[in-house]
């Protein structure tokens, strides 16, 4: 499948928005595994902070052992930060942010000239690896703020790609 031919319009022109990719229908354990895997191949950009419900103050995510577990247990709020150095098969994936919500991991991306055929394929490999961790996960894409209206074209392209990826 020529991903770029089918989906370039979702990536190539920076219109200032930050479209979302949702990984849903995952267990807390899968969420922890996904987050740990992502942190093993990238790192947070800068020193992101999160609100600690337990300490009633902001703390650096880097200082938290198992941030996903702390979130699930209610000790910290949901958190979001930009990923730095995320490479798949040697290809740097353009700016992605990760957000951890209940039973979901969300990614935002900036559209623009940094995206091309290789970067889109790397993103699909990245998402396929996540689906290997959480086989029942649903992976959806939507325009910023349009969660209730996911892009079927993206979903169908990913499902087709994933079926080929695992075969």
Describe this structure as you would to a colleague.
A hairpin with a 2-residue loop joins β8 (96-101) and β9. A six-stranded antiparallel β-sheet has the order 2-5-8-9-1-10. A two-stranded antiparallel ribbon has the order 3-4. It has a two-stranded antiparallel ribbon with strand order 6-7. It is globular. The protein has one domain: TATA-Binding Protein, CATH 3.30.310. The chain starts with a helix and ends with a helix. Helices cover 34% and strands 25% of the residues. α4 packs across α5. With 167 residues, it is α+β, with helices and mostly antiparallel strands. It has helices at 3-7, 28-41, 67-72, 117-133, 152-166; strands at residues 20-24, 43-44, 49-52, 57-60, 79-84, 87-88, 91-92, 96-101, 104-109, 138-142.
Short description:
The protein is α+β, with helices and mostly antiparallel strands. It is built from five helices and ten strands; from the N terminus they run H-E-H-E-E-E-H-E-E-E-E-E-H-E-H.
């Amino acid at each position: 499948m020529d991903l770029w031919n089918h989906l370039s319009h979702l990536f190539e022109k920076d219109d200032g928005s930050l479209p979302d990719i949702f990984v849903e229908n995952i267990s807390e354990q899968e969420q922890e595994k996904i987050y740990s895997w992502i942190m093993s191949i990238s790192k947070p950009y800068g020193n992101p902070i999160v609100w600690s419900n337990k300490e009633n103050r902001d703390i650096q995510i880097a200082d938290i052992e198992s941030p996903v577990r702390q979130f699930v247990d209610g000790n910290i709020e949901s958190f979001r930060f930009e990923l730095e150095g995320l490479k798949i098969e040697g290809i740097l994936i353009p700016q992605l942010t990760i957000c951890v919500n209940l039973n979901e991991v969300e990614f935002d991306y900036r559209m623009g000239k940094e995206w091309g055929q290789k970067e889109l394929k790397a993103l699909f490999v990245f998402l396929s690896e996540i689906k290997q961790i959480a086989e029942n996960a649903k992976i959806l894409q939507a325009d910023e703020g349009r969660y209730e209206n996911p892009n079927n074209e993206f979903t169908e392209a990913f499902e087709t790609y994933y079926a080929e990826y695992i075969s």
